């Protein structure tokens, strides 16, 4: 059983080696001032929304887009009602969007819906009608300055810009709180630092902007893996584009609240990461080594080592513990101590990271102090369930499934949230 202790020690060292650079990110994000961007031009944008059975929330998003402090005549809103069986299309039209209905049960997923939407926009409005396109999920709502702030960064030469992903329902339970801290940490401790160091940020599902030049180059949208957002990020990095980040552009996203739904979603993310590295991994490694691309190195380190080491640790520890119980090994205490010390160290690390996130972002988190505290306290549990989803994703087949949304709030509702 001493072998287990040695292996766990080696895995811990590998974890620290792979993610030591993120400690530099953290220090820079906390201490270094962000660059302020100012736009010289107001660009014309198309807003892309892929919606599947989202009649409960779609109107709130469209209203938040129409309420932007940005010239209304420079924003057109497009919705693809994708395989809907409810009144999503009608709700979107009544709210003021141009709606296209798609019915295809074979090519399923957000990537296919975006391709369909851009094909129709190019056909009916032309390929040069817009300078850029925003991508939102139907459950999102935008801060009133979102597009203005994104325009500042976009106008300074970034072909792709991602935003600050906040939560509509942080305080619902420990699962929604865990998601919220996870995304806030990605925004403020990773993407903020990446922007400061001049490397590429990572698009995170929703709330991003890309130039019409990219849309024309790609023939619309060409990314169809389970994590089409990460695939898009990697593809642009390989083409030497730098994904920008705008922290003053705040988007609010609804997070899952049920463990089964959350587990399925995160397993899909992991399977999507594996798909991306299966398709682009060699090109990323080559660009890292040959061109010295830190952005490629960062994208590789941000996912694969964690996935491999976590799965190896869980599987190896489970096998060793089971073997110890079956053989009634006399030094079972060493095994238990090794496992417990590893878990305790992980909990402390996650409390530290989650605590910094909650403290630094407390003014932006739309939840009570009590909800924030319990979200931080149970953040390690959220990440541990993520680790189990990793193992599940590696050894099973995962398909895209829609996530049901029902939190219909406005920005005003969020601003009225009382913090106790």
Automatic annotation (TrEMBL):
GO terms for molecular function: glycosyltransferase activity. The chain crosses the membrane at residues 6-31, 306-326, 332-359, 371-395. CDD domains: EpsO_like. This is Glycosyltransferase family 2 protein. Signal peptide: none annotated. Belongs to the glycosyltransferase 2 family. InterPro entries: Nucleotide-diphossugar_trans. Keywords: Glycosyltransferase, Membrane, Transferase, Transmembrane, Transmembrane helix.
